């Protein structure tokens, strides 16, 4: 199977898993009752941003897998797998278990993993890393947002 097909399927599965966790929760009384930081984007931004970012992940990692030597390909596959598990995992921890505090270290790990993914993809071609860098920026922002939600909602 072509690497781009594999990364597209893996990313789509991650998006689906995250969607299952968030589908009803973003409009729940629990989520609505949380105090939110002033810098939190409006709700419609999240699905738009994630659609673009999931596409970005699938394309850049798929292209990088075609360019990298075998040993780096194996490492990129592992890094992508870890990243996608953290990605979907955050949704399940935050929305599925409604545990804001536990979501903070998951978000931080996702941000670090995303930066590592950018670095690895950039080894194949610098422009692939540049193209994936919005994902690292977004997940870093999401980690700050998670930490802010915890600070504003200490009982959660």
Characterization of the model:
Belongs to the TspO/BZRP family. The chain contains 6 helices and no strands. The chain is mainly α. The protein has one domain: Up-down Bundle (Ferritin), CATH 1.20.1260. It is elongated.
Notable traits:
mainly alpha; Ferritin
Q: What's the quick description here?
A:
Helices cover 81% and strands 0% of the residues. It is an all-alpha fold and 156 residues long.
Tally of strands: 0
Listing every helix as H and every strand as E from the N terminus to the C terminus, the arrangement reads HHHHHH
Quick one: biggest sheet? none
Shape: elongated
Structural class label: mainly alpha
The percent range for strand residues is: under 5%
Domain count: the total is: 1
Radius of gyration, Cα only, in angstroms? Answer: 16 Å
Instruction: Tell me the CATH architecture.
Output: Up-down Bundle
Q: Look up the CATH topology.
A: Ferritin
Task: Say which CATH homologous superfamily is assigned.
Answer: TspO/MBR protein
- Measure the end-to-end span: 44 Å
Helix content: over 70%
CATH class: Mainly Alpha
Number of helices: 6
The low-confidence parts are none
Arithmetic mean of pLDDT? 96
Topology of this protein?
Blueprint (H helix, E strand, L loop, with lengths): L2 H20 L6 H5 L11 H23 L2 H27 L3 H25 L1 H27 L4
Helix pairs in contact: 1-3, 1-4, 3-4, 3-5, 3-6, 4-5, 5-6
